[in-house]
Predict the structure.
Amino acid sequence: MTEPGERRPPISSGETGGRGWGAGRVAGGRSARSGRSARTRSLPGALLAAGGVVLLAAAAWALLRGVFELGPTSLAIAALGGWGIGAVLRQARAPVLLAVLLGLVAWLLGLVFSWLLAMALLPSSTRTFAERLEGTPLLDWLAPQLGPLEMVGLLVYGAAAAYAARPSARP
């Protein structure tokens, strides 16, 4: 037993070679054996996770714009979605351009999902869903929908994804 004020030796740290929590790690969360960061993902895994973020952001964009008609609020979705895409890809050290491209995909999917929702929720229509899709093609529906808000949304997706995916300044 130790007296008050005495210091105990470390139970298991990377320097002593112990096998407890933190063993084999050096400062900065890097593994002493591999030199890789403990939070690094593989690129395929990061792309899969970023694809999930793309789908979630696109669905949220479509719901806010198409169903709830909360246009300016959808910019918050663009910012969060872009940031999520970039943050996931940063863990895999993916290029910033890839994050920006996935932000563009999320924006496009949001517009497609909005079109599908508009066709599905068309009030007092006697036509089937397939007939509505055939009668109103995406580009015909999209032309009057594209306004300044959608263009700002595209910029926000790309900027947030680029900002979150940028390489860290730390060594």
In short: The first strand starts at residue 25 and ends at 26. The CA atoms of residues 85 and 138 lie 26 Å apart.
